Amino acid sequence: MVYNLVLVESSHLSRFFFLLTATIIFFSVKGLLNKLLAVTLNDNKLIPEFVYSSFVISQTFGIFLFPCLILAEWSRLNPVVFLSMASVILIASQIFKWYRGVVFGLIEHKVGLLQIFVYFCALEILPPLVMVKFIIETF
Fold it and tell me: Which domain holds residue 22?
């Protein structure tokens, strides 16, 4: 670990399982909320298409992210360089997903701008912010 900010007293394995569990819970809740939104809007096509598109984008950017994280952990070079590259890749991935979601909703399916804004605030932006705030304050 580069900065030892989360679960400093714990072993590497317990840190890994904590972050894995938090990620699984986060994506499970997000998936359930997407299903609930699809049922509530009575639109069984729009939300699953957007979720699939988001999944494909995440997988594609993950191909570029993985080598950066491996090099940051096991390279003899300064890991901050690789972590910075990984941060840029994550930010680019998120911006591209949001852009694709807005284009997908506004142009392809004629969803209103207010509904898209509420969706992104509630399901795309708020959960990661809450999770980061929880981790920073708790550990």
Answer: 12-138
Instruction: Please identify every stretch of the chain with a pLDDT value under 70, giving residue numbers as ranges.
Output: 1-8, 123, 139
Q: How many domains is the chain built from?
A: 1
Q: How far is CA 80 from the centre of its chain?
A: 21
Mean of the per-residue pLDDT values of the chain:
80
Alpha carbon separation from 100 to 14, 50, 66 (Å, rounded)? 36, 9, 23
The whole-angstrom separation of Cα 132 and Cα 44 is 31
Q: What DSSP character marks residue 107?
A: I
Coil vs helix vs strand at 10: coil
Q: Are 93 and 129 in contact (CB under 8 A)?
A: no
pTM equals 0.61
